[in-house]
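Friendly challenge for the regulars: who can give me the structure tokens for this chain first? No prize, just bragging rights.
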Amino acid sequence: MKKQNIALAMSGGVDSTACGLLLKKHNVSGYFMNINQPDYQSQLERVREIAGQLKIPLTAIDLRQPFEKMVLNYFSAGYQQALTPNPCFICNQKIKFGLFFRAMQAAGADRIATGHYARIDRLGSRCRLLKGADPRKDQSYFLAGLGQGQLAKTIFPLGEMTKPEVYELVMAAGFTDFQGRESQDVCFLEAGKVGDFLERQGLITARPGQIVSIGNEVLAEHQGLHHYTIGQRKGLGISDATPYYVVALDAASNQVVVGKEPELFQASLTINRPHWLAGQEPDLSKRYQVRIRHNHRGAEAELRLIEGGCLITFAEPQRAVTPGQFSVIYAGDEVIGSGEIRRP
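First reply, four minutes later:
Bragging rights claimed.
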């Protein structure tokens, strides 16, 4: 790649620092998002220190208001509807590779670099999003909402690397205090549970209700649907010879529905408004691998387009399919498409 003006999205972590080292031959400028993180000031100071060591300029972009509107409001609205939303997926799509991305482009960047563990394969005018080479750190799932325009201007310098290799790189360059430092999954959450955060921020009001069996037998009481998700076992307050799990959340009746392990499995699911990365639907005669959450290994499935969505039928039933999360469709290492899981 010839020398370019590259905007590096920085977090103060080991991954974006490693990107800065790998991109030294280019004109690199660092950028940091202000999304009202609980520890924003200390994060900013750390990023400034790292940018200084990398000898690159740093600009902070204020995205607090759009982040609240596009991510926090989505997050709270999902829980109000008894869904389990995925704020990282939406943030990547609308903030990091949306407003933040465009701000870096407006500043003169030819390419945008991030520390995601994913790869981009460029075939003429088309870009294919691929899993990262390190299967333990692959982040392609969270990037499945991106489009061709974003992928065409993005580079993932760590896509072919493993996490141990990244640590070796930064330590060799004199950065020795990263070991054991990992960013948390949801950046705006402070220590504690999601439900407590929603109540503390005034984003949701607790509505106590019943915990019932599939047969509608009242088994216990709950303190708000937002404290529960599909597949949850702990915190139900039900004693039995075999454990109960949350199998459904009924917003209309304000009930948590529980069942036994076999009742957690589904043979199919539907996603809303599928997003195809190539800009067109895939070959529906083929079978694909589908992940129903980030840490799901993926399962073989068939696809069928229906009105407003896509029906995904698995070769074998899958455990704890969760409305509000995203299904991501793969053909081998390539991300084909994605969509939000619809309530049955």
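Helices lie at 14-22, 40-54, 64-80, 87-106, 148-152, 163-172, 194-200. The CA atoms of residues 292 and 330 lie 11 Å apart. Your move, everyone else.
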